[in-house]
């Protein structure tokens, strides 16, 4: 490459079968990563809500000594629920950002999409609906624990 030549771009994208299948593997890895974040978010939200419910039932049980800090489990539960919601928000943002990158004009030829008047629908992923549903469940759990606290 001489000094008068301009660089072609960041990557040399070749339209071959191995690059196409590499693109597909990358997309599937992205889906698996988002599913792992959904599992983590569900676990955090579930653990937070369970801790609150367990210690509330324990406090109502007869013969159990009162706790030194009776509100601590509720604060821990709220923190875990909030962490689960935050994890889902960050992972959904990261997923959308990388999907937009994978569908950029430089990678569209190896994705297998023609650009003749047809734009790929990059937001069609049932997994994003699951993420939104779990976020709403988490927000509901957070609000229900918060309202009981006030």
Short description:
The protein has 150 residues and is an all-alpha fold. It has helices at 17-60, 72-102, 108-111, 126-149.
Helical content, roughly? Answer: 55-70%
Radius of gyration (Å): 23 Å
Enumerate how many helices there are, as a single number: 4
Which residues form runs of ≥5 with pLDDT under 50? none
What's the β-strand tally?
0
Count of distinct structural domains: 1
Beta content: under 5%
Give the distance, in angstroms, between the N- and C-terminal Cα atoms: 69 Å
Q: What class do helices, strands and sheet pairing give?
A: mainly alpha
Succession of helices and strands: HHHH
| Mean pLDDT across residues | 83
Biggest sheet descriptor: none
- Overall 3D shape: rod-shaped
What are its keywords?
single chain; 150 residues; mainly alpha; 4 helices; 0% strand; rod-shaped
What is the topological layout?
Blueprint: H1 17-60, H2 72-102, H3 108-111, H4 126-149
Mind explaining what this structure looks like?
The chain is an all-alpha fold and 150 residues long. The protein is 69% helix and 0% strand. The longest helix has 44 residues, at 17-60. The termini are far apart. 17% of the residues are buried.
């Amino acid at each position: 490459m001489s000094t008068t030549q301009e660089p072609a771009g960041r990557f040399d994208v070749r339209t071959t079968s191995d690059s196409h299948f590499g693109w597909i593997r990358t997309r599937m890895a992205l889906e698996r990563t988002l599913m792992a974040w959904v599992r983590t978010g569900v676990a955090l939200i579930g653990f937070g809500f369970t801790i609150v419910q367990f210690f509330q039932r324990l406090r109502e049980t007869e013969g159990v000594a009162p706790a030194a800090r009776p509100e601590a489990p509720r604060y821990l539960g709220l923190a875990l629920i909030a962490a689960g919601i935050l994890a889902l928000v960050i992972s959904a943002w990261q997923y959308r950002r990388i999907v937009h990158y994978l569908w950029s004009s430089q990678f569209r030829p190896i994705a297998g999409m023609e650009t003749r008047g047809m734009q790929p629908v990059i937001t069609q992923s049932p997994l994003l609906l699951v993420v939104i549903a779990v976020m709403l469940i988490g927000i509901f759990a957070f609000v229900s624990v918060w309202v009981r606290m006030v």
